Amino acid sequence: MREVMSHLDAAADLEQVLYDVHREIQPLIGQGQLADYIPALSAVDPQQFGLALATTSGEVHGIGDYQLPFSIQSLSKVYAFALALAADGETIWERVGHEASTHPFNSLLQLEHDHGIPRNPFLNAGALVSVDRLMSRHGSAVQPLREFLRAESGNHNIDVEKSVAESERAHCDRNASLAHLMASYGNLDNPVPNVLDNYIEQCALTMSCHDLALAARFLVRGGVRADGTRLLSTDNAKRINATMLVCGMYDQAGAFAFRVGLPAKSGVGGGVLAVVPNRGVLCVWSPGLDRSGNSVAGVAALEAFSLATGWSVF
Amino acid sequence: MREVMSHLDAAADLEQVLYDVHREIQPLIGQGQLADYIPALSAVDPQQFGLALATTSGEVHGIGDYQLPFSIQSLSKVYAFALALAADGETIWERVGHEASTHPFNSLLQLEHDHGIPRNPFLNAGALVSVDRLMSRHGSAVQPLREFLRAESGNHNIDVEKSVAESERAHCDRNASLAHLMASYGNLDNPVPNVLDNYIEQCALTMSCHDLALAARFLVRGGVRADGTRLLSTDNAKRINATMLVCGMYDQAGAFAFRVGLPAKSGVGGGVLAVVPNRGVLCVWSPGLDRSGNSVAGVAALEAFSLATGWSVF
Amino acid sequence: MREVMSHLDAAADLEQVLYDVHREIQPLIGQGQLADYIPALSAVDPQQFGLALATTSGEVHGIGDYQLPFSIQSLSKVYAFALALAADGETIWERVGHEASTHPFNSLLQLEHDHGIPRNPFLNAGALVSVDRLMSRHGSAVQPLREFLRAESGNHNIDVEKSVAESERAHCDRNASLAHLMASYGNLDNPVPNVLDNYIEQCALTMSCHDLALAARFLVRGGVRADGTRLLSTDNAKRINATMLVCGMYDQAGAFAFRVGLPAKSGVGGGVLAVVPNRGVLCVWSPGLDRSGNSVAGVAALEAFSLATGWSVF
Amino acid sequence: MREVMSHLDAAADLEQVLYDVHREIQPLIGQGQLADYIPALSAVDPQQFGLALATTSGEVHGIGDYQLPFSIQSLSKVYAFALALAADGETIWERVGHEASTHPFNSLLQLEHDHGIPRNPFLNAGALVSVDRLMSRHGSAVQPLREFLRAESGNHNIDVEKSVAESERAHCDRNASLAHLMASYGNLDNPVPNVLDNYIEQCALTMSCHDLALAARFLVRGGVRADGTRLLSTDNAKRINATMLVCGMYDQAGAFAFRVGLPAKSGVGGGVLAVVPNRGVLCVWSPGLDRSGNSVAGVAALEAFSLATGWSVF
């Protein structure tokens, strides 16, 4: 990493970088397509953009709409998987892998080939495993997840956006197909409709960049939560980061590692979460998506940030 | 990364770690299968094991057979690609991608689907692109590659092992199939037999862990060669590391990122090269392979080393 | 076709052929596996075997257990598709194709690749289209189908076996996955649970070889029903035969055309229906299945019959 | 089959049908694309059209350019396979299958999946098996094939068009890829360059509809050649017909069975051969191809002929 890093920790410098990044990627805000398969998401204002950095120690720096809640969608997969891994331990890897997929996030191709074992926890099928495991452990997936997100961010208003959940429930045939396929291979223990319901609700949580970044700090604190208790071992926290780097950005994981060099996970609500080991967590949001489902302005902002700071794992 | 790192740079500590790692993985040496599709490789003594670390500044620490030359095979893909990227610049990404493949290293499935553009430079097909580009630029691939490896390692005896090359030439139908498929899509400029010849010769180079680690230091020196001249920009050096992490370990890239957390590339000769950003390059060798073609004892040694030192990008 | 055919129409000769065939394939009866994914089917006596020929004019010749009802399973796909084609006309080909599949009968691979359009009406997915179309036209699929089968066979006791339907309902995740995938592409108009219910019930109809052969005579009568009214045009009746020949025997369609040379459709209950243009319809039944899901003794009997009579379309 | 057939054998009637068919499909002549990947084929006059029927007894009826030689291309696969089957007997089925392929004629996807065993003899890969077997038996594939075609048609001028062979030799990377892949699995016994040479030459034979139809009469004569000697058993002749019906028309085999109902094989030179069991062999030619590589006017003419005569196997 570059010289610039050493004095970057000074808050003033970070604020300046955020300001510069925002200005630089301004022309990209509003570009791309809104997620159109969920009506509630296609009604969002495409001109929104927010970027937040939560440092390891808990400071938050932000710019733009970084305090505005949005639909977290697949960002939920990171937190839900962490909770499932905490609950199940190593045995969860018998139900989900940690290899990249060359197919889209909702594809059934690989899933049939692999007899119902999803390639990784960040595909829809993989997230259904996390949900199913949480349900078996806690009776619910969305409840312990919401509780965790509230505790880590300190924001007790975090909740499911009912209109988004309704909208997704009316358009969930693809996920229902994935869930039934996994059930046919014995890789879901709870009834498919219940698993789908929890999955839909966790996707429909609304949070701001500010809160999402705070809530993911356990990934840069060796598995330790905000209150100092341990969620995961250091090694397991690293493993989530490794899996995010290899699998987190749909079929653009390699391109993102190449351009940005940070473990990351994106959601079709336009959010992207990126982990900077030992430093902090970035969360960016802008609703316009590229063809792979990643935020156009969000990915560009992370790339600009990485270039400006030299923060990259490589 | 952990506390332990700060005082690890002391040579004595590193030597101790290498010693401990060697002892720890001793039971795995000799396990796995020798590469059996190349007769010359299946005659190797499976009990051999070597591990070397070349630091950014050029010190080399090693243990076991780390000074014994072996067939570098696919490790050549890293150096050849770096030279091709240096020669071609960004345009090389029109001929080869940087995404993981879910298929084996010599599969034609993805290649036909992607119209002759290999998924990444570390598959056989991707390496044929590097060879073809070097031939177009320099009239040969193996000559500039050998010259580079000799200069970076300071060992002017590095050369092609003729018996291995002969053996591979007699069993190259699979690679010939890949090359002709790419040629049918216009993704090779030189005659297929010449490209295959250069490819086979570069795989048949023999080098020690010591020399391989030294020769890859440009990846931890921001693209700068041993003599201080620049081969690649800092960003391009990082991009090679990113691509290795996502794609370098055949269909086990995710598992390796998960277990070891370092950019790496393996070869069926039993060698594995691993990059520790800002610190140095590891090269391990032991001929027994797992089902994906990665050295059993080699991967275990890198995992043990990573655990002992806390060196990991995550 | 061979000389033997001209005098074979004599009833005595046909009875002799049936007797010889039965004796010849005796050692195969009981071989193979019972369908084990539906508990109600795995409880059937594997030693049963029946073979019936219904001539164009309506005579029935039979041997063995040809009057014993069994679970018709996928044989229902032929009749349901014929009714759906009669109802919809040519437009049904916008929802289902007529090409062979190289994948198993319940695979999702091709279906995702083809955006929810099944390759042919004799795969599970294709049969879900027939069911959905009949529901849109008649409010139900199983009711008009049962009515048709009763009318054509003259047997008014034909009905759904409730225990089989219950058993399938409890193990229908795979078909639910197919149905939801098709629904996600807009290729089902009715609610998935209702479509599945009708599909399961039509598979759970029980009929004898005698009745199944009689009920398929419209395929050798140019689309004309038992009562002389027209169900389909001559061309459409031929097209169903053509589609059966190319697609009717799961992934063994080519092998069956090769060995037997007749349009045919099999079911995992152990039944196989085969059409001899201009002559009649054969129905054979024996529960033991080969790895593709076709009756071992049934296919052998059809091959022996074809060799003995020279009846083949080639 | 329909009434009309009984009096159709009268030569006058057949000539009238050919005349009507020619007039009916006139607007389609010239439509479609010429095969553009072989320069020598793309220079052909697209307005040409010929149709011939050779009856079982050896009469030939024809219309249009039915006596003009054209490049037979993949039609050669039928004759070459028949000779290979005659030479090898049943053992040839260990090297090639008889199932349809859902992939294009020159795809490597299925071939890798099936470990070098082509799905059927009418794909390029399958034809390479025929060539290899003939070379092992006779030292050459194209020589015994040319001899056979001359003997069956009575035309001793049939020969390889050198300019077409040269053109194909310069564009054979795709077939070279197929051949090397098969060689890598041990499914070719002769050197790949020699196999390719023979394959290319047999594709570059030029023949007229008249001669092609005559030369295929063994398929409607139970395997018996023009001179009364036996090439194949009756069952093997039927099996070739069955395999043509299931696999002969590239990825449109089902559609062709559906529309025309006859075993057939097409070539990218614009020829289509169709077998009417017990009656005769049709050969049609018009160079414009549809997207699957089948002659647009040729397929339409066969459909019109089948409708007019009722000749269909279903």
TrEMBL record, chains A, B, C, D:
GO molecular function: glutaminase activity
Hydrolase keyword on record: yes
Record keywords, A-Z: Acetylation, Hydrolase
Subunit structure: Homotetramer.
Entries under Gene3D superfamilies matching the protein: DD-peptidase/beta-lactamase superfamily
Keyword field contains Hydrolase: yes
GO biological process: glutamate biosynthetic process; L-glutamine catabolic process
Organism, scientific name: Luteipulveratus mongoliensis
Protein name in UniProt: Glutaminase
Family of this protein: Belongs to the glutaminase family.
UniProt feature coiled coil, ranges: none
Enzyme Commission (EC) number: 3.5.1.2
PANTHER family found in the cross-reference section: GLUTAMINASE (PTHR12544)
Catalytic activity field: L-glutamine + H2O = L-glutamate + NH4(+)
Positions of substrate binding: 74, 124, 168, 175, 199, 250, 268
